[in-house]
Amino acid sequence: MKVLLVAEYRQGRLAESTSELLGFADALGGDVSMALVGSPDQLPGFDGRLHFADAGIYGEYDSELHKRLLLQAVEAETPDLIVFMHSSYGWDLAPRISAALGVALLSGVAGMDGDGFTTRCCNGKMRRTVTAMTSPAVLTLLPGAFPSVQPEGVSPELHPMAASGVPVVEFIRYEPPSTGGIDLTRSDVIVCAGRGVGSREKVGLVRALADALGGEVGATRPVVDAGWLEHGRQIGSTGQSVSPGLYVACGVSGAIQHLAGMKGSGFVIALNTDRDAPIVEVADLLVVADLEEFLPLLTAKLGS
Amino acid sequence: MNILVCIKQVPDMEASFVPNRGGTWFDETALSFRMNDYDEFAIEAAVRIKEQLGGTPEVTALSIGPGRVVEVIRKAMAMGCDRGVHLRDEEAASLDPWQIASMISGYASTGGFDLIFTGMQSVDRGSAQVGVLVAERLAIACVTTAVGFSYMAGRATVERELEGGAKVVVSCALPLLVTCQLGLNTPRYPTLPGILRAKKKEIVELSPGQAGMEKPLTRVSGFSHHVSRPSGVVLEGRLDELAGRVAAVLREKRDAIRRGGVR
Ligand SMILES: Cc1cc2nc3c(=O)[nH]c(=O)nc-3n(C[C@H](O)[C@H](O)[C@H](O)COP(=O)(O)OP(=O)(O)OC[C@H]3O[C@@H](n4cnc5c(N)ncnc54)[C@H](O)[C@@H]3O)c2cc1C
Ligand SMILES: Nc1ncnc2c1ncn2[C@@H]1O[C@H](COP(=O)(O)O)[C@@H](O)[C@H]1O
Fold it and tell me: Hey, of B20, B163, B234, B251, which one would you mutate to test binding to chain A, going by the most A CBs within 10 A of its CB?
């Protein structure tokens, strides 16, 4: 089995997820090579063939240019699998490679199962086994699904990639994350409001519990998108990453992107009507209850 | 200007899913269906351009699926889309993203669309593939994961979401396909007059063959519960009694944190 891993680099940094790509390759075994449009000053710790192009020359991510560069690495390696992370880079570029080659793409791979791969679906509640009917096949890996492997003291053997052309999509600027001055990373206690809270008015029930515990209020993405709470309170892969000693998840299903931002928490209590919600996987205590009835009872008990 | 919006009908995610007989997807019998969340943002984005340009663009809403998906096409039309296309396939749930994309691009290649909006992903399959595949097959530009969009004089400016809440702003000439992320805008609710008007709008029905459906590239061999093994204790029962127990746990944890015992 020949595996081509596609590493990511942005704004002067090699992505940490490179170690997960290597972890996946380790679990699978076989002949491993890598491709990267990055910086010569930040090469991955990897002792194989690295198909490399300098981001200093090629500029910020341009899907057309990166596609053409990568297709060269594919041609040189004739891999069985071309592997990305399921990230803003991977889900943007992987389908382009799949379409250019006319081959299968399996997205969000979380494990292996016989000659297929498992992926999560239905909000993380269910899983599927999917098999590619083409060779090569393209995969994107679910972040956090495979262990990190970081070889030290090794360096890759460089093979240059080159392409030309004007970008179709013009890069204008980056915008840093804005939290509106809310810093949840220092809180010891966070009570998080999920969509299960039901309405803007009922967010007050969550705030009352947070106050009773002397903690901060956090939120899932749908809650901030609906304007029930400020954007700066969002926890998850596109919000803040927190690790309080106590995390109370109220009406939070536990989507993988939310878990990414809170899995470092100490003790996790989940309040949910659905005892199968994926949040149970990280909860030390799951209370099966309707929030509207339960939160006032709980807050009252804490006060007394 | 011609705009296409691709919408998928999906089940409520809070349902409990039971595998179908083939063990490849869920059994639909007890499920209720609605519009894919991400696609509501796609419709809103399209309708806003129509309004911005004084109503001249024509917005087409397309959905692939069995008879029931007409409901989401009607909803899209009630939100302001002008016409509907139903690619009718009773077995659409067994198609892979490549096949879905082959039909959408097959249809779109005849329509001269300047802008195509899709969701970033469907909540049931979550593959995040269809939009980009359609654009590549049509050989048009594509920007994924849009959390901001504006259009002026033949060019679109799109804010793409990156990890950790960072964004990148890009600009692109039409034709363009945009995949819409949650929070791109605030999707409107259909109004009563909108719903009444939608009833009179045309929905064209096409077969998969007419849209040029291709063969699948993947095969599904298993569908099961993700063993969401509770990592801790599950409490159920009388709420007042539970509240007392949970309050005791919370107090204990909070006090331990205050003493500096947890960190
Ligand atoms: C690229 C990308 C990035 C993302 N980034 C983030 C991120 O940073 N943070 C984030 O949170 N999400 C993020 N998301 C969205 C994520 O996939 C989920 O959609 C989101 O986390 C779900 O939020 P939720 O749990 O509040 O809502 P839902 O998934 O709708 O869950 C609601 C829960 O409430 C329960 N419930 C309903 N009613 C009640 C009741 N009366 N009492 C008790 N429980 C009840 C339900 O059983 C359900 O489990 C991202 C998605 C993508 C694609
Ligand atoms: N059956 C379908 N009919 C119409 N559009 C679809 C269908 N399936 C997927 N799409 C579109 O493609 C997007 C991404 O879906 P997916 O690749 O399945 O995650 C969705 O948000 C829709 O806009």
Answer: B163
